[in-house]
Write a structure and sequence with these properties.
Number of domains: 1
CATH architecture: 2-Layer Sandwich
Radius of gyration: 19 Å
Strand order of the largest sheet: 1-2-3
Number of helices: 4
Helix content: 55-70%
Largest sheet: 3 strands, mixed
Length: 101
């Protein structure tokens, strides 16, 4: 019979990945990827088509550049609702403010 020897200082894979992300300051980029997926999922194909660029800045500011004036106006009126939907999709509070350009 084979015996598995577990070392006292062994680290789980999940803990090792979290440490790597923390040491290399990757959490911001991972958050940005999650928010972009949330934007595509919650906004639908029409919003996805008119979205030119997105960037998650410091302190949770999401900068979104759109190609359509009427959509800019519509989404500007629903900023707080959109922020709530994005954070719900991601599962934690990542976006604190939505800035539409």
């Amino acid at each position: 019979m084979a015996r598995h020897i577990r070392k006292e200082n062994a680290t789980s894979l999940g803990d090792a990945i979290q440490a790597y992300v923390r040491v290399h300051n990757l959490q911001g980029k991972l958050d940005e990827v999650d928010v972009i997926k949330a934007w595509e999922a919650t906004g639908g194909p029409a919003v996805e088509r008119i979205t030119r660029s997105m960037h998650l800045g410091r302190e949770g500011k999401l900068f979104v550049t759109l190609d359509s004036g009427p959509f800019k106006e519509n989404l500007s009126l629903r900023k707080s609702e959109i922020v709530t939907q994005l954070n719900a999709y991601v599962g934690r509070r990542v976006v604190r403010e939505l800035i539409i350009r």
